[in-house]
UniProtKB/TrEMBL annotation:
Compositional bias of kind Low complexity: 781-794
Keywords for this protein: Antiport, Cell membrane, Ion transport, Membrane, Transmembrane, Transmembrane helix, Transport
Organism: Maritalea mediterranea
Lineage start: Bacteria, Pseudomonadati, Pseudomonadota, Alphaproteobacteria, Hyphomicrobiales
Region Disordered, residue ranges: 781-805
Subcellular locations according to the entry: Cell membrane; Membrane
Protein name as catalogued: Monovalent cation/H+ antiporter subunit A
Chain ranges of the MrpA C-terminal/MbhE domain: 693-771
Transmembrane segments: 6-27, 34-55, 75-108, 120-137, 143-160, 172-196, 216-241, 253-273, 279-302, 309-327, 333-357, 378-401, 413-439, 460-478, 508-528, 573-594, 609-627, 632-652, 658-676, 697-716, 756-776
Record PANTHER family: NA(+)/H(+) ANTIPORTER SUBUNIT, NA(+)_H(+) ANTIPORTER SUBUNIT A
Length: 805
């Protein structure tokens, strides 16, 4: 076993795609036509670096990198920018970077000449970096950051054709569903830390029973599965995935078959050692996975759009993976990993094949194309190679994945037998889709298509051909591949050493189940038209579904927001202020009452005559405010209160606060008086008695609330640690001896900046308001008066009421 700690290459692997994304538009501008090939060197280099880890990982080692992000001394939750590579993350990272290399070159050919090609390449590279960061992340917050980045970048990619309403809807739908799941995942990750005390996944996996034995296990499980199910499109959150096919085909080939939708599967596999092998895990995952498998496989047969057909089979494949991981058995985990890699190979290839057909013929409708074998020979070869693995024909990687699944079939476990039968039906129906896409567009009489078909450029068919070849080559060398790749990955998921038994062997039961799969697939392919017609008739009867439910939810959400806005944002300043002060009173008294912390009245101190004089002046000012005939008099009387407070500060040895209070009070009175006179608001308050009593009562409650809080604070022993820190560090750190100034401009500089910004904004608003009341920009403050043009008629139209000064 060999460990490579603090391996800085991992940081570069995670950041390189983002750096390349910044350069992509410029590369595309100056190297248009070959930009895809140039930019693809980055994921290719990442793949080669990751390939150097294959040996250490196969020997049972790990590769890691950790860099402090947010210091734990400032934040209770330690956040590190940490990455970790074991067998599981290595397989995902190799798939992401390897298939990403083909996708980037494919995008260069598919979007060649598009005016936003550089932007698209930038988006696809950002997504690649997000996925690499996700599968390599060790710290749970690092994982969540990259998790959300995948949602954001996929939103940009799905909505790339933003002029189309369907693309915008699909992008928003994907963002809402996966973003909502992301919030659930965040709560789940925080609970994992709260329960276990581990913020790093690598250390969490060593304490395997810490979550299973905790009373909050079920809640943690549901939160984590909520994030995984939405990202990996499990029923009932599956509807966003087929709609995401509005994205350009490179997006479908990369995000929605090989990478993003498998992020949820990765999360389930990663958390398996600490969450699996319970009744909840072994029930929830197989049931939802099995339903998703059958739903996707059946719905795929209803489509004629080849991208939609592949999208629904992707849905079924994701259900297969979730169902297998939910069994918590060594064979099931190994089968899931085999199926995951096989699916990435053949589904990525088939999506690119469909994109090439669409790009060169102008349509991807299965009923509108045929006879393209001679026109697109290399694309046809790629389709056949991919379909062989998708059908599970010997001796492809898909064949061994299917055989491993069927090893679960045994009379001693009825549950496993039922799930194997579900897998058999799902495999057969998905096989029919693969055969349809590999055969129907290329054989038969050639039909007239919107474009005259011809072979796609090299950048568009070399990737699917290589993926198809890899799907077969991995089957030929299955023993070595299993020992090097799948055994370490299964060990990481199973949390115990797994030795693969992968080899070509003949078992009567497995052969019978495989033959049954091929029979189901062959019959479904032969009766494809009849099945499609039947499913469409059923769909016309049962119109409602999760997709329509999402629209209703969004419509209801918008209506609710409108109602709340009309209720709370009614435009009446008076009610706004009432609500603010009522909430303030609640915030003041609620904690004191709930914690039984209402202070006792202190003994009244012995005051000197001059102190009594100041209190008497403040009381006179209060009476003057209440008895004032006009608002202007009330404002001036209110200044008495401020001046009294300033004098109190002076009497008790705080001259700086006293002078500050004096200046603020003077400016406040002057400015308010100026505004009142310029706006002609110096008339008497027009409130009726009931309103005056209401407002007065609220004011009295708030006043007593502040008094109670201050008394409660003063009753606690003074903690001087913060002031001691200021005294000790004011000169050496901030180079200032006036501690108050240092606090304002150094320790709480952002707060001071915010206060200045608020005051400046309020001043601008007041100035604008005065200008409007004086007649708008033509008669505002400082606006020059324009003389009327000679010969121009004088204005006789009376000025409107709103412009009256």
């Amino acid at each position: 076993m060999s460990d490579l700690p603090n391996h800085y290459a991992l940081l570069l692997i995670a950041l390189a795609p983002f750096i390349t994304a910044l350069l992509a538009p410029w590369v595309n501008r100056f190297a248009n036509g070959v930009s895809g090939w140039i930019l693809a060197t980055v994921p290719a280099a990442i793949f080669l670096v990751l390939a150097t880890y294959i040996g250490p990982i196969a020997d049972g080692g790990t590769v890691s990198f950790t860099m402090s992000w947010v210091e734990s001394q400032y934040f209770h939750f330690p956040i590190n920018l940490s990455f970790f590579v074991d067998g599981l993350s290595l397989i995902f990272a190799l798939l992401i970077s390897g298939i990403g290399t083909f996708i980037v070159t494919y995008s260069g050919g598919y979007l060649n000449g598009h005016r936003h090609q550089g932007r698209f390449l930038s988006f696809i590279l950002m997504f690649m970096g997000s996925m690499l960061g996700l599968v390599l992340a060790d710290n749970i917050i690092t994982l969540f950051v990259f998790w959300e980045l995948t949602s954001i970048t996929s939103f940009l990619l799905i909505g790339f054709n933003h002029n189309k309403e369907a693309s915008r809807r699909a992008a928003i739908q994907a963002l809402v569903v996966t973003g909502g799941g992301g919030l659930l995942l965040l709560f789940g990750l925080l609970m994992i830390f709260a329960v276990s005390g581990h913020s790093e996944l690598s250390t969490l996996m060593m304490d395997q029973n810490v979550l299973r034995d905790h009373p909050a296990y079920l809640l943690v499980l549901l939160l984590v599965l909520g994030g995984a199910f939405t990202k990996s499109a499990q029923v009932p959150f599956h509807f966003w995935l087929p709609n995401a096919m509005e994205a350009p085909t490179p997006v479908s080939a990369y995000l929605h078959s090989a990478t993003m939708v498998k992020a949820g599967v990765y999360l389930i596999a990663r958390m398996s050692p600490v969450l699996n092998d319970t009744i909840y895990w072994n029930t929830i995952l197989p049931i939802f996975g099995g339903i998703t498998l059958l739903t996707g496989a059946i719905m795929a047969l209803r489509q004629t759009d080849m991208k939609q057909m592949l999208a629904y089979t992707t849905l079924g494949s994701l259900g297969m993976l979730v169902m297998l991981l939910g069994l918590s058995e060594k064979v099931a985990i190994l089968a899931a990993l085999l199926f995951l890699v096989a699916h990435a190979f053949y589904k990525g290839a088939l999506f690119m094949v469909v994109g090439a057909i669409d790009h060169e013929s102008g349509t991807r409708d299965l009923t509108e194309v045929s006879g393209l074998r001679a026109k697109l020979p290399f694309t046809f070869i790629a389709a056949v190679l991919a379909a062989i693995s998708m059908a599970g024909f010997p001796i492809s990687l898909g064949y061994f994945a299917k055989e491993e699944i069927y090893l679960l079939f045994g009379p001693e476990n009825v549950w496993s037998m039922a799930l194997v039968l579900v897998a058999l039906i799902g495999n057969g129906l998905m096989m029919a889709v693969g055969l349809a896409i590999a055969i129907k567009p290329f054989f038969g009489k050639m039909l007239e298509t919107p474009k005259s078909p011809h072979e796609a450029p090299l950048s568009m068919y070399w990737g699917p051909i290589i993926l198809g070849v890899l799907g077969l080559a991995a089957g030929f060398y299955i023993t070595d591949v299993g020992q090097i790749f799948f055994a370490p990955a299964a060990t990481a998921v199973y949390a115990k050493l797994v030795e693969t038994h992968l080899k070509l062997h003949f078992d009567a039961l497995l052969i019978a189940l495989s033959v049954a799969t091929w029979v189901v697939g062959g019959l479904a392919f032969y009766k494809l038209e009849s099945i499609r017609s039947f499913l469409r008739r059923v769909a016309t009867v049962w119109r409602w579904g999760p997709d329509q439910g999402f629209d209703q939810f969004m419509f209801g959400l918008i209506r609710l927001a409108d109602r709340v806005t009309r209720l709370l944002h009614h435009g009446r300043l008076e009610l706004y202020l009432i609500l603010v002060f009522v909430c303030l009173a609640g915030a003041l008294f609620t904690p004191l009452i709930m914690q039984d912390a209402l202070p006792k009245l202190p003994a009244f101190p012995n005051l000197h005559f001059y102190e009594w004089s100041i209190i008497a002046i403040a009381a006179i000012g209060l009476i003057a405010v209440i008895a004032a005939k006009t608002r202007l008099v009330a404002i001036v009387s209110l200044g008495i209160q401020g001046f009294s407070v300033a004098v109190i500060f002076l009497l008790f040895g705080a001259p700086d606060l006293g002078f500050t209070q004096l200046m603020v009070e003077t400016l406040s009175v002057v400015i308010l008086a100026l505004v009142m006179t310029r706006l002609h608001l110096d008339q008497r308050d027009a409130r009726v008695l009931e309103e005056a009593v209401r407002d007065g009562a609220i004011a009295i409650v708030c006043g007593f609330g502040f008094v109670a809080v201050l008394l409660a604070v003063l009753s606690v022993e003074l903690d001087t640690s913060l002031s001691d820190l200021f005294v000790a560090t004011s000169v050496p750190i901030a180079h200032g001896r006036n501690i108050v100034n240092v606090i304002l401009v150094d320790y709480r500089a952002l707060d001071t900046l915010g206060e200045i910004t608020v005051v400046m904004t309020a001043g601008i608003a007041i100035l604008a308001l005065i200008g409007i009341r004086l007649g708008g920009p033509k008669r505002g403050i400082g606006a020059p008066k324009k003389a009327p043009k000679s010969g121009a008629p004088k204005r006789t139209t009376p000025r409107s009421k709103g412009a009256r000064a």
